Amino acid sequence: MPTAKPSAKSEAARVQAIFDRFCAATAHPKTELNYTDPFTLVVAVALSAQATDVSVNKATTRLFAEAGTPAKMAALGAEGLEPYIKTIGLYRTKAKNVIALSGILLDQYGGQVPLNREALMALPGVGRKTASVVLNELDIEPAIAVDTHVFRVSHRLKLASGSTPDRVEQELMAVVPKPYLTRAHHWLILHGRYVCVARKPRCTACLVADLCPSRELFMGG
Fold first, then answer.
1. Domain 12-29+143-219 grouped into CATH 1.10.1670.10
2. Would you say 62 and 52 are in contact if contact means Cβ atoms under 8 Å apart?
3. In angstroms, what CA-CA distances link 33 with 56, 100, 186?
4. 129 counts as catalytic
C-alpha cells in the first residue's frame, strides 16, 4: 500500500522544524571563506569555483595581505597574481578575471563593489552563484546559491526536486521560511559539508534525521 502523501500543512511544519533546528544550533552561520570587505569577499568567492574554501583561504591569506584593494590587485596584473593562487584550480583564468574586475571597479565604481545583482553579474568571473553568495553573505538580498552540497541536501531532505541548480534555488526560495532565507544557504552547505556528506552521510549525528525522508536509505530501515 503506497505511503500517503503528506498534507501541505504538515509538510510546511516539517520544513519549519528543520530550519528551526538549524537556527537553534547555529543562529548566525557565515561563509568559511576569509574576507574583510565586499572586495575581498567577491574575489574569494570567485576563486572558490571548483575549489575548496580551505585551499582558497590558504591562497588569499598572503594575497589579501599584499593586494587587498582593487588598486593593489590591478597593479599586480594577471602574471603577478598567478603565483598567489596557482594552487587553486583554473588559476590562470581566475587571475585574468580578478584583474579585469578590479580594473572595472576602479574605472566605473570608484574602487567600490556595486552591491546589486545586475552590476555584480556583469563583472568578469562573477556569475549568478557568486553574486548570490555575496549579496546573501552581506545581508543585502536573500539568496540561496546552490552548489553540490546544497543540491544534495535539498534532495535528501525533500526540500526540492529540481534537476538543475537554478530550479532547486527557485524551489528553496519558495519553501524556506522567510525569516531564514538569508541563512538557509549557509546551513545547507555546512550540513552537506560536514554531516550529510555524499557517500556515507552521518545520519546518527544529524540534528534533523527524524525529519528526513531519506534517512532509511542510509540507516538500513
1. yes
2. no
3. 7, 22, 12
4. yes
Q: Say how far residue 64 (Cα) sits from the centre of its chain.
A: 21
- Compute the mean pLDDT over every residue in the chain, rounded to the nearest whole number: 94
* Domain locations along the chain: 12-29+143-219, 38-137
| Full-model pTM | 0.86
Q: What is the DSSP string of 159-201?
A: S---SSHHHHHHHHHHHS-GGGTTTHHHHHHHHHHHTS-SSS-
Instruction: Say yes or no to pLDDT of 211 above 50.
Output: yes
Active-site residue flag, 147: yes
In the prediction, which pLDDT does 218 show?
A: 84
Active-site residue identified among 129, 158, 166, 178: 129
Angle of helix 91-109 versus helix 70-85 axis, rounded to 10: 180
Please tell us whether the domain made up of 38-137 is placed in CATH 3.30.9.10.
Answer: no
Q: Which of 20, 53, 147, 158 is catalytic?
A: 147
